[in-house]
Amino acid sequence: MIPQRKPAPDSRIRTLIADDAPMARRGVRILLERDSGVEIVGEASGGVEAADLILRLRPDLVFLDVQMMGCDGFETLKRVGPDAVPVVVFVTAYDEYALRAFEFNAVDYLLKPYDDVRFAAALDRARDLVLRKRNDAVDHRLTRLMEHIEGEGRDRILLKSSGEIIFLKTGEIDWIEAEGDYVKFHVAGRTHLMRGTMAALEERLDPTRFIRIHRSTIVNADRLRKLSPSFEGEYAVVLNDGTKLRLSRGYHDRIKALLGRVE
User: Fold this and answer.
1) Tell me: the pLDDT tens digits for 124-142?
2) What is the distance between the alpha carbons of residues 49 and 155, in angstroms, rounded to a whole number?
3) Which of the two residues, 121 and 1, has the higher pLDDT score?
């Protein structure tokens, strides 16, 4: 028996059944209808019809018979083309096609007659692959979105944190420090990590607003309160919240250019 699932809205696996034997199609349908995570979007009684339905309906998954009149399962997938082929479970009474089936990247090969447990295992394997492909597609679209937003200007930085995407406005940043292979953003008492280098980050930030005061420190000029003498003629940069940061000798000129001559 296929276990019942409670899918989230619009998360069901859209599935097509393709077999030239009506009883075989009915058997697959009965088993699929036991799983609430599956939506049967259509049935095909031949390979040509199956190819047309795959291209038109764009199912996530197809249970595909190997031997069908007019056009077998392999020719069906060739008609569809690699870019449109969904996840495939081949269903057949002949074991000699198994090797070729996996050359077509089939997720499983159901040999008739099969029982409910074997069918459930094939469906679960197919479901896992469908969900991975969906996640990959979402990640790709998200990456494109992030690249677009980051290319719009220097006013925001996108951070990934605990599976979330944080849109960090640069004006909210107090200061930034290097931490190994990462940079750490200090924002209103909170910190955020991003993999990268200070040099690459400095290239992205507005040089009229952000000043490198040390090889491992960048500060938001709007947060500067004062410069305090430290030792041996050096200074400490004091921010509005009282944070004290070392001003390295090699970066004095950057502060001078922004604030005027420092004695």
Assistant:
1) 999 988 888 777 655 555 5
2) 52
3) 121
Domains of the chain: 13-143 (3.40.50.2300), 156-259 (2.40.50.1020)
3-class DSSP string for the chain = CCCCCCCCCCCCEEEEEECCCHHHHHHHHHHHHCCCCEEEEEEECCHHHHHHHHHHHCCCEEEEECCCCCCCHHHHHHHHCCCCCCEEEEEECCHHHHHHHHHCCCCEEEECCCCHHHHHHHHHHHHHHHHHHHHHHHHHHHHHHHHHHHHCCCCEEEEEECCEEEEEEHHHCCEEEEECCEEEEEECCEEEEEECCHHHHHHHCCCCCEEEEECCEEEEHHHEEEEEECCCCCEEEEECCCCEEEECHHHHHHHHHHHCCCC
C-alpha span between 60 and 38 (Å, rounded): 10
Question: Do 112 and 92 meet the contact criterion of CB atoms below 8 Å apart?
Answer: yes
Higher pLDDT, 136 or 213: 213
State the helix-helix crossing angle for 73-80 and 47-57, rounded to 10 degrees. Answer: 30
